[in-house]
Design goal:
Number of strands: 4
Radius of gyration: 18 Å
Protein name: Facilitated glucose transporter
Keywords: Membrane, Transmembrane, Transmembrane helix
Distance between the termini: 32 Å
Order of helices and strands: EEHEEHHHH
Largest sheet: 2 strands, antiparallel
Shape: elongated
Strand order of the largest sheet: 1-2
Strand content: 5-15%
Length: 138
Amino acid sequence: MTETKSRVASGREIEATDPAIRLVVLALLAVDGVLSALAGGLLLPIYIGSTPFPISALISGLVNAALVWAAGRWTTSARVAALPLWMWLLTVAAMSFGGPADDVILGGQGLLAYGPLVLILLGVGPPAVVLWRSRAHG
């Protein structure tokens, strides 16, 4: 049996595990960032009555914050901890381009024209706060 040792990095204790396990966990968190972007973008045009209600943007931002926090528990690098957020941003960017028949996921008229901006602001804000706080305290 191998002994599990802990190492201290940036003022917090990180359990020494197999690097392959860390890689798999971080890759799964990155895939979760993609899923968060897809869910947030596809559920963005939800209405309450006749008024658009983009609650999925806020939920996506909170999920992103949890993903970045979880990634921060598996790495000491803030850049690597931001991997779910980077994947989320890449997915949102891909959704903003037209598809084969010029179908656009993020778009609309009236208030929904501002939906992508709301999605980006609410999707990036909470995880940015998590990254800033972890960097300030670490």
